[in-house]
Amino acid sequence: MLKRYIGWWLALPATLLVALFLILPVAGTIGSTFGEGAGPFAPYINFFSSGFRRRVLWRTLEISLATTAISLLLGFLTAYVVSRVPRNLKSVLIIAAVFPLLTGVVVRSFAWLIILGKNGILNTTLMGLGITSEPFAMLYTQGSVIVAMVYLFTPLMILTLVGVLENIPDDLIQASSSLGASPGATFRQVVFPLAVPGLIVGAVLVFTGSFTSYATPQLLGGEKQMVMGTLMYQQAMVNFDWISASTIATIMVVITIAIVLLMTRVAKRLNPMAT
């Protein structure tokens, strides 16, 4: 009898910790938004009736989706190359790809301040080459936030995809070629469907990280490019409006879950074996 439930007993401490430190706080945050005297949905009505807050939400989605798409493309190409090189070189390339992860998010974001600043490395180089006579205003734009986010999250995508791509048997690719399939057809009909689970996991990680990011949008976007994370911080720590901050957090949780479910559905359509 004890052996039958030993797995459940072993999982019980971790389950209790997750319930105590994750599920209960999130449930309390969401529940606090429905206790307003003006009505259970009053905080959400106030949020979506504000044009400024709708723009912040839309901007956050734009940045997150663009970051996910670019990281997906760059990460997939890099991971595919890494998975096909000899083992010794593969280790070197993986270390080089994930090297940025060894430094903190704030440090990496400050590096982009130095690169994209008015007197930064990029503007100095362009002016030195005679391409432009005046520096471009690259900081505090949506593009600068996306560039920094892609730099932050592409290593995660590479790490996720390398393991998936290197487990695709070479026999399948050789069989596809021997049956007359072109390299493009082999990629579309063999490599890509088998890589879909890794693509979905990587996309979920990148989207979730970029959608909830705070430090990078704050440093490179400032007040002009406010996103949901910086708006929530402002409401909680500057305005001390905790109900509004909890409402923003709840909206972010709902959108994240919806996007994850949508990606899972897309994965199942592309590859029925993917979960």
Task: Give a topology summary.
Elements: H1 6-32, H2 42-48, H3 51-84, H4 87-98, H5 105-116, H6 121-128, H7 142-166, H8 170-178, H9 183-211, H10 215-221, H11 228-238, H12 242-270
Helix pairs in contact: 1-12, 3-7, 3-9, 5-10, 7-9, 7-10, 8-9, 9-12, 11-12
Strand content: under 5%
Radius of gyration, in angstroms, nearest whole number: 23 Å
Instruction: Say how many strands there are.
Output: 0
Q: What general outline do the C-alpha atoms trace?
A: globular
Total of DSSP H or I helical runs spanning 4+ residues: 12
Main sheet record: none
Mean pLDDT: 88
Helix content: over 70%
Cα distance, first to last residue?
A: 32 Å
Low-confidence stretches: none
Outline the structure in words.
With 275 residues, this protein is mainly α. Helix 7 (142-166) runs antiparallel to helix 10 (215-221). Helix content is 76%, strand content 0%. The longest helix has 34 residues, at 51-84. It is built from 12 helices and no strands. The model has no long low-confidence stretch (mean pLDDT 88). It has helices at residues 6-32, 42-48, 51-84, 87-98, 105-116, 121-128, 142-166, 170-178, 183-211, 215-221, 228-238, 242-270.
